[in-house]
Amino acid sequence: MKCKEELNGRRSKLMLTGTLAMFAMSGLRAEAAISTDKDDHKPEPNANGGRVYDEVADQTRPSQTVHTFNIPPGTLAEVAAALEKETGLRMVISSKRYAGVQSPGVQGVLTIEEALTAALKDTSMAANFVSPERVSLDLLGADQSVSVVATSELISPKYTAPLRDLPQTLTIIPQAIIENTGSTTLVEALRTVPGITFGAGEGGNPVGDRPYIRGVDSQSSTFVDGMRDIGAQSREVFNLESVEVSKGPSGGFAGRGAAGGSLNLNTKMARRESFLAGTFSPGTANFFRGSADGGLKLTNSIAGRLNGVWQDSDTAGRDYVRNGRYGFAPALLFNLGHRVRLNTNYYHLMTNDVPDPGMPYNNPTFFARIDGRARTLQAGDGQPLVVNRNNFYGINSRDFRNEKVKTALGRVEVDLTEGVVLRNSYRFGKSNQDYVYSMVDDSQGNIYYGLVYRRAQQRFSAVDTSINQTDLSGHGKTGSIQHSFATGFEFSRERGWNSTYTLGGRNSAGVVAIPTYTVRNVATGAATAVSATRCPLGTGAAGGYYCTDLTNPTPDDPFYGVTSATNLTTAAPSAPVTNTLVKNFAPNKQVTGTRSVYGFDTIRFIKQLQATVGIRYDHYDSVYRSALTAVPVTTFPTISNLVNYQVGVGYKPVTAATIYGSVSSSATPPGNSLGQGQDPSAITSAVNQALPPEKTRSVEGGVKWELFGAKALATGAYFQSNTENVRITQADSTIAAVGTRRNRGLDFGITGYVSRKWQLFGGYTFMNAILLNSGGAGAAAGLMDGRRFPNTPEHSFSVTSYYSVTHKLNLGGGIYGAGKVFGADSPTAPKWVPGYARVDLYGSYRFNPHVELQANLQNVGDKTYFLQAYTTHYAQMAPGRQGRLTLNVHF
């Protein structure tokens, strides 16, 4: 992990770790007297980031409150006493022998965090919040900089209780885990959380991020800084502080969708300190990556930050598959007086990739050829074919994926009182996705003859989002009952459009089409027209390069673009124009507007009993319009009024533990994904337009317990989610929202220190996810009833572990695995990928406070396994073994 105990090149570092409360309760003041602990000890981080919570009021955040300080230099005891007087916080010096340490004092308009940093400058002392009103001052520990959980902080004000007391399963992936595991994308970071898989597809977002949480596609339930970010894309991590993974229906928090859970990505904001950090990472598979992150305190009230990344790499174990990207993210912070703050940031990311076509399944439908070609394969059991893992079935000169993401955020926070904060956020974003890639299309049974048809999947699309969100959060009392509350409203507008490319031939009527070729039937001698999708003339130029060899693919083939050939139904294309793509500027469009209001409250009746309740109303209004070139042009509007809730009760037998039960809901209306992913109820037809929202209700019961002196948090939960109004095809072939499904299971996790030097982050998830009423036309009616969800393993686990051998040397790694995953659990033609277990290794050595060398070896055993399983055609292979060395610097 990066060296973090130095600030501005000096030896001391303020260790204000973990979930620091939002603001102190109005009138709350601690003792204004200096205390010292009797026993000498070094402060240790814990699962709540170095704090011990005892009251609901702990959800305040005193470290960010602004004060005017005029404290002269003096002993640590004198300066700490002055800090107590100004801030109302209790400063506890761990040993009397440190009381005489000389402090430079504190001057200026600063947050408490900044004041403590100034007071401890050049003292070799550290500050640690052990509660919202108590700060421990101790000698800086040599191993404090390697805390995995130092940034495990709930950022969203909608969470009105500490992580330990929330009545739901929620995991925070801190920046330290992201960095130590060598993760460069959101997909890689999410491997550290069990119960999450990834989906594949044909259109929409087939090669981008499609996380499945508890068996539900959650692409449209991804949020950035608390606001929905629906655009199809492959997400980077260079600008992330943490990732919040909420499991279970969370419509009360997230709004529409979120039937399996949601993701919230917390980005890097400017902070009032000057620093400079950077990384350079070469690795195998032509991996090169560099990043920089710098902050500058411009004045006492203005600070800036700029971070960026550049990467160019191949994919280990996969020929031709590559990733290229660069991005940058500036941010500014303005303190507009003691009680008002303005945060702004901008995010820009460009990618240039060659996507992976995947591997074909071994049991497609069989079609007998008429040309006498010998069959070389028999049907298999539904898993991917066993071929050379490096085989690339694309066309290198044609296949690409380019993405561009630009977002801007403005956020104003006002401290109405010391315990109540009003926040308004506005976010505008635009994302573009542009791709052509060769999907291995097994629908024609070509693999049985040693051939692969390279079907061109293509799209170019854009999404604009505009969101305004206002929150009021704080805490207080009604008599003897304590409250920690958050309420707010939100207005959003999302606009998406999708269009396609022209590629392939153009027949004599000027219609773009996949050509057909004349083939002689060896049995009858008759000439028959056969589509290029059946590879009638084999591979190479004779077959128009549409097909390639199954065992020895030819990715350097040219491809045919738009041509003015006379008639492609009787001969191979004539006079082709190679390497040409033409965009069709005739998009379909969808616009969605949402108006929402919500409220949450954690109510503490007595010390042992509390309840968390929340409700949200969304007015959802969406309209789809087909391309203007369509005949006829169609428009399908839909309106839904959605009410979702979360109610949980927690019993605390001891301060460190919470036993809870909760009920939550979600609703997914037609057109929820804005055409950016797989949406069974896309509002592209009058039938779907009239469908009611899918509704999911979940019950969950569990235990959360802080262990090892509150340095680790262990969790365990049982859950059951039931979904109704699922869109299905009925026996008479009509469409209706009468399907049902159920997912019940167990979820365990642990985060934090299990000893002073040993840290764990991981868990295990069991899911029994069943389709109860899946429909089906004619003889297929009920065929899938009782079968498993797609993309939902029964068992999954992850363990990331680090051990501080010395204060300079850290070793660790991870084990990540999942059981069998179905793309389609069909009783007649299943599609699935086998389970796997993957091992990663990690090590770092800190040469001095500024320089560290980190090594990562991912997929140590070069395990062949699959990340994504589509319902048909193909499965997406995971990268092979890759080693990286990273030079981390920090000043």
Automatic annotation (TrEMBL):
GO cellular component: a single term: cell outer membrane
GO molecular function, one term: siderophore uptake transmembrane transporter activity
Record keywords, A-Z: Cell outer membrane, Ion transport, Iron, Iron transport, Membrane, Receptor, Signal, TonB box, Transmembrane, Transmembrane beta strand, Transport
Source organism, top-level taxon: Bacteria
Limits of the TonB-dependent receptor plug domain: 163-261
Membrane topology type: Multi-pass membrane protein
Chief site of localization: membrane
Domain TonB-dependent receptor-like beta-barrel: 423-860
Pfam family, one: TonB_dep_Rec_b-barrel
Locations listed in the record: Cell outer membrane
Family classification: Belongs to the TonB-dependent receptor family.
PANTHER family (alphabetical): CATECHOLATE SIDEROPHORE RECEPTOR FIU (PTHR32552:SF89), FERRICHROME IRON RECEPTOR-RELATED (PTHR32552)
The name this protein goes by in its record: Outer membrane receptor for monomeric catechols
The organism of origin for this protein: Terriglobus roseus (strain DSM 18391 / NRRL B-41598 / KBS 63)
